Amino acid sequence: MSEIYKLTLCQIIEKIKSKEISCEEVTKSFVDRAVKSKKLNCYIENTFDQALTKSKDQDKKLESDKKLFGAPIAVKDLFCTKGVQTTASSKMLEGFKPEYESTVTSKIWNEGANLLGKLNCDEYAMGSSNETSHFGNVINPYKNNKDLVPGGSSGGSASAVAAYLTSATVGTDTGGSIRQPASFTGTVGLKPTYGRCSRWGIVAFASSLDQAGPMTKDVKDSALLLEVIAGHDNKDSTSAQNKVEPFSQNLKKDIKGLKIGIPKEYKIDGISKEILNLWEKGVEVLKSLGCEVKEISLPHTKYALPTYYIIAPAEASSNLARYDGVRYGFRAEGKDLIEMYENTRSLGFGDEVKRRILIGTYVLSSGYYDAYYLKAQKVRRLIKNDFDEAFKKVDTILTPTTPSSAFAIGENIDDPIAMYLNDVLTVPANLAGLPAISIPAGYDQNNLPLGLQLIGKPFDEQTVLNNAFAIEQSINFNSNFKDWWM
Amino acid sequence: MSEKQFDYYLKGEKGEYEVIIGLEVHAQVSSEAKLFSSSATKFGSEPNSQVSLVDAAMPGMLPVINKFCIEQAIKTGLGLNAKINSFSKFDRKNYFYADLPQGYQISQFKHPIVGEGKVILDMPYGTKEVGIERLHLEQDAGKSMHDQDPNNSFVDLNRSGIALMEIVSKPDLRSPSEVGEYIKKLRSIMRYLNTCDGNMEQGSLRADVNVSVRKKGSKEFGTRCEIKNVNSIKFMQQAIDFEARRQIEVIEDGKSIDQETRLFDTKKQETRSMRSKEDAHDYRYFPDPDLLPLQLEESYIENLKKDLPELPDQKKQRLISEFKLSSYEASVIISDQAVSSYYEEVAKNSDYKLAATWLMGELFATLNKEGKEISQSPVSAKNLAKMINLIKDGTISGKIAKTVFEEMVKQDADPGKIVEEKGLKQTSDPKEIEKIIDKILSSNQDKVEQYKSGKDKLFGFFVGQVMKEMKGKGNPGMINDILKNKLK
Fold first, then answer.
1. Which segments within B124-219 are labelled E, that is strand?
2. Which residue among B59, B104, B284 sits closest to A203, beta carbon to beta carbon?
3. Is residue A69 within 8 Å of residue A88, measured between CB atoms?
4. Within an 8 Å CB–CB cutoff, is residue A238 touching chain B?
5. A354 given a catalytic annotation
6. Does B286 lie at the interface with A, CB-CB under 8 angstroms?
7. Is B102's Cβ below 8 Å from some Cβ in A?
8. From A76, A107, A118, A457, active-site residue
9. How many Å apart are CA A478 and CA A440, to the nearest integer?
10. Which CATH superfamily is domain A4-259 in?
């Protein structure tokens, strides 16, 4: 069978189980394509040989009870993988091989999937373009006249799914790191409710915001992968006890009567006309599906971005303190301990990481804590309250995912504020801990994909997925890039 | 004893000064596992043999609270008559050091698990109440070793993540001896509760000592200095005395005290400046986002309260009423739970007054001399009780008992057997005693004359001679009586 790699995750597993295709064929299809796609720079580390060997073994004994049997899956390089280099795309962790496997990836391998490799991302997941990676920027398979960023931080993951270099993947989302790159690459990215998936074994960026989630070709794949990775974990005190539903089986496109909110505050300055049109198109689709669409207000929306850029760096400044050159990872010697710290952290971290450590250190400093960190926590509560109020009236909230389509590599790299603005529509869901999905909904005039975002009630991923599924079925988005890099 | 007055005032050139002391005691929680990981906590293990991924702060590792440590902190709080906070929170205290793997210590800053309480001290001038400000839980750091290699420092993370209780007193202490009693009392309470072994040599109990001075009679506090990490009562007392005198000198020189952190040099017996207030770390405390706030049910606390063992203060009252001990005897005996158990066993099986006398006299002296704890006592409670019973029934005299006791120290044997084997049984046969007395008196005619002409003190000489002749085994009461009669 040609172009196996174009199949969705669910289709691949189905065909393996029905013996239409072998695990080895599937793995080989992705490996061959990934090898030919090095220019996109998605993979930091590959485990192609191990994956091929495993797939051959799997062909000898089919385990049809496993949900991801035979699926080759590469993961964001923020997940610790046992014996396989895990770097968070930082020089600081170059060569670091964990002796443990993250809970989320363990769950994936337990369902019969095989690790294909580790995918590039922004350094320590800090960035919106994948340009802060120590291992170079990732290129979006969609191309204007220039090479484009895939978004970030899960840029390698998004490009790899879009360009068919992995059957699906898991990313992490702290302020939009799954959804924004999904939007830029015409793929589906889901950030689950905070606490839905264990954070154990994921290199931490901002603990109160970080959440792992599926990045897939379509909504059904997203539902399947979520039901695999979700669930309580004793090793993560913030993981939730909530029951995990069989999201993929429950998936339905009949969403008649669903109440959808359109937050007026999301029509921010500088949002492109095309994005607004896309949003309007989404509204029309939902109306045609029998949904009740109404305008809602989330009055504290404008404070979300500044709030995020206080809380996330504050937590990061503390979370990244452990990378000190003492026990593992990169070390630059010095004449004493202090100089060793200074050298190690000056050379080991990139500019964006340092910028955020500095911001975080500042906002937690004595004399500034109340004005920044404490104030931000209060605003965060107000933002959460806005959503609580809104969800008394509606079931989901529809917004665009990003204020623009993918931009050129280098375009925003010297302007942190312009870069941070990419997250303006995705950040509120992180601050409020809500599930949110980005699905591809159309193209702009340059033929670049645009995404719509659906935000749901806490632990109501099922409604979010159903809603997304219904839109997906109506819009029938098809990727249309050419394999220009091969 | 209660006539004694508090008298720890230090004299300067310009008057007398009162010393104000507050302590931050760090007590290691007795627990098999660490505060946020399941690693073992055994003292003295091979370096880095008790280190989990969490303790080493590997990427992506998360702390999970050890419920047992919470229980231990609550019990200790109850033992300090303190308020248990149903809501508490863990914060991160951020600073860099080689033996602090996370780059922050998880502690409780704003919302400690235990609030205000109090401890009662028995001082020679009466009881003294010391206020407890708070008790909070925190992680210990690892240990840096700078003497293993000429060029490198080594780090042992066995201690990293072990649970500590920081017990903060109010500035209620006024002298080194009050500090000594306070530490002993805390240790005793925690040992009764089994929440901290109180072993200062192993670092299970250490303190930061805050000292300031003020003119006697003044109501305002002076500027304080904090002496970091002092690990014995003796050093605390020396450090306080030195520091207070240093501060008085500074003040009398017309200068003012800088609020600073100081170190106590145990060799030179002086405190030295470590860092000034300006150089103080900015720890950037903030709530640890990896941990949820700790919420305790009232019923959970109530159940722990119900299961508390008898505590030192209660035990003291009981010993006074049950065994008619003096307040002093009772407080000495209860200060160590093992001692009090030993006492109770001896007292219940013999005579409670004699039990106290022998325990606090001969046995303590022996333990002191041999540097042993009561748990290592060479004389078992059972045998000591038997020995006291031999005194009571007249089999041996108190004096002979000392010889028997010495034998028991050498080999913890049945005192009855020792008396038998060594022929130490007391002679209470009046005829035999009379015979010896006659012999002594007749060979000391001159002294008899002197006695009769008024030199009363010679009575002791005769008793001594008779005892000597009888190899100490004569019944002292009978010797006295018969001798008195003969010398009339």
1. 126-139, 143-145, 154-156, 163-169, 205-215
2. B59
3. no
4. yes
5. no
6. yes
7. yes
8. A76
9. 9
10. Amidase signature (AS) domain (3.90.1300.10)
Distance CA(B337)–CA(B484), nearest Å, equals: 47
Token pair listed for B468: 């000597």
Note the ipTM here: 0.96
Query: Per the CB < 8 Å rule, is B284 touching A369?
Result: yes
Of all residues in chain A, what percent carry a pLDDT higher than 70?
A: 100
Nearest to B292 among A238, A328, A361 (CB): A238
Interface residue A96 vs chain B (CB under 8 A): yes
**A76, A176 in Cβ contact below 8 A?**
no
Per-residue model confidence as pLDDT tens for chain B (488 residues): 446 899 999 999 999 999 999 999 999 999 999 999 999 999 999 999 999 999 999 999 999 999 999 999 999 999 999 999 999 999 999 999 999 999 999 999 999 999 999 999 989 998 999 999 999 999 999 999 999 998 889 999 999 999 999 999 999 999 999 999 999 999 999 999 999 999 999 999 999 999 999 999 999 999 999 999 999 999 999 999 999 999 999 999 999 999 999 999 999 999 999 888 777 789 999 999 999 999 999 999 999 999 999 999 999 999 999 999 998 899 899 988 899 999 999 999 999 999 999 999 999 999 999 999 999 999 999 999 999 999 998 888 888 899 899 999 998 889 989 888 887 787 778 888 888 898 988 888 888 888 888 888 888 888 888 888 888 788 888 888 888 888 87
In the residue annotation, A177 being an active-site residue is answered as yes
Give the chain A residue whose CA is nearest to the CA of B97. Answer: A337
CA A301 to chain centre: 22
Residues of B in contact with A201 (CB under 8 A): 60-61
CB contact under 8 A, A321 and B102: yes
Written as one string, the DSSP assignment of A141-185 is SS-SSS-B---SSSHHHHHHHHTTSSS-EEEEESSSTTHHHHHHH
Instruction: Let me know how long chain A is.
Output: 486
* Whether A76 is catalytic: yes
Burial class of residue A335 (count of CB atoms within 10 Å of its CB; 0-12, 13-18, 19+): exposed
Please answer whether residues A10 and A224 qualify as being in contact, where contact means their C-beta atoms are separated by less than 8 angstroms: yes
Q: Across the interface, do A322 and B60 touch by the CB < 8 Å criterion?
A: no
Catalytic residue selected from A90, A106, A177, A183: A177
Given the DSSP bridges, would you call strands B260-265 and B225-230 parallel, antiparallel or unpaired? parallel
Of the candidates A204, A206, A365, which has its C-beta nearest B282's C-beta? A365
Q: Does A98 touch chain B (CB under 8 A)?
A: yes
The domain locations on chain B are 9-305, 310-422, 430-486
- CATH topology (fold) of B430-486: Arc Repressor Mutant, subunit A (1.10.10)
Distances (CA, A) of A228 to A72, A214, A249: 15, 10, 13
Question: Is there a contact between A327 and B62 if contact means CB atoms under 8 Å apart?
Answer: no
Q: Identify all chain B residues contacting A328, using CB atoms and an 8 Å cutoff.
A: 58
Q: Does B289 touch chain A (CB under 8 A)?
A: yes
Could you state, in order of their start, the residue ranges of all structural domains in chain A? 4-259
Compute how many other C-beta atoms are within 10 angstroms of the C-beta atom of residue B263: 16
* Residue whose entry in the numeric block shows the structure tokens 């061959």: A32
Count of pairs with CB atoms under 8 A, one residue in A, one in B = 98
Is the Cβ of A318 closer than 8 Å to some Cβ of chain B? yes
Strands B163-169 and B126-139: antiparallel
Report which of A476, A478, A477, A474 is spatially closest to residue A256, judged by C-alpha positions. Answer: A474
Structure confidence at residue A186 as a pLDDT band (50, 70, 90): very high
Nearest by CB to A324, from B53, B59, B103: name it: B103
Q: How many CA atoms within 13 Å lie on the side-chain side of B12?
A: 21
B103 touching A (Cβ < 8 Å):
yes
Query: How far apart are the C-alpha atoms of A64 and A71, rounded to whole Å?
Result: 12
Could you tell me the CA-to-CA distances from A42 to A38, A77, A163, A433 in Å, in that order?
7, 10, 10, 29
